[in-house]
């Protein structure tokens, strides 16, 4: 081999090695979910269960600031936040409007979050359309808000729901998101409902079923995963679980004739199911909010309805949970009830330590932990 050829080959090899060393995605591509799981520590496994808001990576921020939709929000990943991420390699992040400043900034933030995680994170956002649209309501991005799902449902046109999901999916993918906490499949049967209202496609369960399925198809067409929520149904409530305890007095049989119809129709299509913090006083025997109820999750959702995919809690920082259980107890109860992903406990480090302790003392078995982590890794495409 001539010196010139040797130099070219050597330079090529060096370049490849440099890329391999600096690209965190290489092992993600070459390893299966099972291989990754086998090589994870217990601490890494527990961390994968948590999806937190970006601001929670700054441990100096108060709970009021990190949980607020309007207080100061981090728009870039600081060195302090990177340090927290090394200590707690969480499974994903949820961004809010306060974390968004501009097109370039948002793309960089999501890119930095991904590049600082050894395992691809879930990069999620609440982008339903209408009044819950973190990106479309940020003027600097120049996006069109597809409008409330109630308006789309009123047209009876499934193509409009599909196009809404497709459009939302297109800009989420452009900005680096992988996951949308949408669509809402609650059946809006209570005119006094202050939480759901026009976020729902309507009051007819079959219409909601069809519209939600079309919306999911639109998201999937853009490579974005979705979430049907809020199991087993938040449409017939008056109270607000963001504030405190909320109860629904329907029996399981009642729910099967209305609220559960959209779930039964879309479980095979859904990437995940989000469980509400409503307490089903007659459909469950344990008196716990559905998100903490083994009866509702393992008995009904996994057992009777046969769903074997990812289950996640609604945000654990909401009043119905935090005021009555606290971050540590709620996280352990939620996982023992059958959830795979624990969403935004108010005190994330405390919740993490409680989960880790429960695993190390045998309250939560390694088999149960591995089951959820494997589901999470597969959801991420490994």
Question: What does this protein look like?
Answer:
With 382 residues, the protein is an alpha/beta fold. The chain contains 17 helices and twelve strands. The protein has helices spanning 3-22, 25-30, 33-38, 42-48, 63-67, 79-87, 103-115, 149-155, 158-174, 205-221, 252-256, 261-266, 294-304, 319-322, 327-337, 348-360, 366-379, and strands spanning 50-53, 92-95, 122-125, 127-129, 132-133, 179-180, 227-231, 247-248, 272-275, 279-280, 310-313, 342-343. The strands form four sheets. Strands 6-3-2-1-12 form a five-stranded parallel β-sheet. A three-stranded parallel β-sheet has the order 7-9-11. It has a two-stranded antiparallel ribbon with strand order 4-5. Helix 7 (103-115) links the parallel strand 2 and strand 3 (122-125). Helix 4 (42-48) crosses helix 17 (366-379). The protein starts with a helix and ends with a helix. Residues 1-28 have low confidence and may be disordered.
């Amino acid at each position: 081999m001539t010196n010139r050829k040797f130099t070219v080959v050597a330079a090529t090899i060096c370049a490849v090695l440099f890329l391999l060393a600096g690209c965190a995605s290489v092992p993600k591509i070459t390893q299966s979910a099972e291989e990754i799981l086998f090589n994870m520590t217990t601490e890494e496994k527990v961390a994968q269960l948590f999806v937190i808001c970006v601001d929670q990576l700054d441990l100096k921020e108060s709970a009021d600031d990190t949980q607020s939709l309007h207080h100061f929000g981090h728009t870039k990943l600081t060195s302090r936040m990177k340090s927290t991420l090394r200590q707690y390699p969480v499974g994903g992040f949820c961004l809010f409007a306060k974390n968004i400043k501009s097109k370039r900034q948002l793309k960089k933030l999501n890119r930095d979050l991904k590049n600082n995680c050894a395992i691809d994170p879930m990069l999620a956002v609440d982008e339903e359309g209408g009044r819950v649209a973190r990106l479309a309501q940020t003027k600097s991005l120049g996006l069109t808000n597809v409008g409330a799902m109630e308006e789309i449902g009123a047209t009876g046109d499934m193509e409009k729901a599909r196009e809404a999901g497709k459009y939302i999916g297109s800009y989420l993918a452009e900005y680096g998101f992988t996951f949308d906490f949408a669509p809402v499949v609650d059946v809006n049967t209570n005119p006094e409902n202050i939480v759901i209202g026009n976020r729902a496609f309507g009051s007819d369960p079959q219409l909601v079923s069809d519209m939600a399925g079309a919306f999911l198809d639109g998201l999937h067409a853009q490579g974005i995963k979705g979430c049907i929520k809020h199991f087993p149904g938040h449409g017939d409530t008056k109270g607000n679980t963001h504030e405190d305890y909320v109860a629904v007095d329907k029996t399981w049989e009642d729910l099967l004739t209305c609220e559960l119809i959209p779930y039964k129709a879309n479980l095979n299509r859904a990437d995940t199911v989000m469980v509400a913090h409503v307490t089903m006083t007659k459909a469950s025997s344990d008196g716990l909010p559905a998100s903490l109820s083994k009866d509702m999750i393992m008995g009904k959702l996994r057992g009777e309805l046969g769903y074997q995919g990812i289950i996640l809690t609604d945000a654990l920082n909401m009043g119905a949970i935090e005021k009555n259980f606290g971050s540590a107890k709620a996280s352990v109860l939620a996982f023992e009830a059958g959830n795979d992903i624990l969403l935004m406990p108010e005190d994330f480090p405390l919740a993490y330590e409680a989960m880790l302790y429960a695993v190390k003392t045998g309250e939560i078995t390694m088999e149960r932990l591995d089951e959820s982590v494997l589901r999470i890794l597969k959801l991420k495409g490994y």
